Amino acid sequence: MKKSVFLALGLALTANTAMARDDIGQYNIAELLETSKAKDVLIDVPLYFGNQAYGDVQETYGEVMTNQKTNAFNKSDKEACQWVMLSALKALQERAKREGMNAVVNIQSYYKKREFVSDTEFECGAGFLMAGVALKGTLVKR
């Protein structure tokens, strides 16, 4: 009986450790934006990442943030991270529209309040059950 209790306790601890995984990975932005999912999900508000040039600005709303999560169960980290990144980008685009702006510039990853600035990659945290992307960007009218 004692062996069964210890075995069950050991399995429970092992399962909790597996579920607590939170790996931070970097993924290619251009590859994501070329997918059919991106073309279906994103709206017509230009997105500029990191230090990409974006031309003249007529008006600036200011910096905004979004923090999105998605179900990662039974998905690869890349698949879950791409999906949640699309959700985060769409949230920025919709916010720009709501505020009367027409572009989002200086987009950077901000997962767990850690700045990651790149023109070509985004950061995503992936675990056993959830994946998350946090972004900061500046809403502008061009």
Task: Please give a handful of descriptors for the protein shown.
6-stranded mixed sheet, globular, 4 helices, Excinuclease ABC subunit A, single chain, alpha+beta, Translation Initiation Factor IF3, 142 residues
Describe this structure in words.
The structure is a single chain. The chain has 142 residues and is α+β, with helices and mostly antiparallel strands. The protein contains four helices and six strands, in the order αβααββαβββ. It has helices spanning 2-19, 29-33, 36-41, 77-98; strands at 23-28, 47-49, 59-71, 103-109, 121-126, 130-141. Strand 5 (121-126) and strand 6 form a beta hairpin.
Quick overview of this protein structure:
The chain is α+β, with helices and mostly antiparallel strands and 142 residues long.
Structural class: alpha+beta
Number of strands: 6
Helix content: 25-40%
Outline type: globular
Q: What value does the Rg take, in angstroms?
A: 19 Å
The CATH class name reads Alpha Beta
SSE topology sketch:
Layout: H1 2-19, E1 23-28, H2 29-33, H3 36-41, E2 47-49, E3 59-71, H4 77-98, E4 103-109, E5 121-126, E6 130-141
Parallel strand pairs: 2-4
Antiparallel strand pairs: 1-5, 3-6, 4-6, 5-6
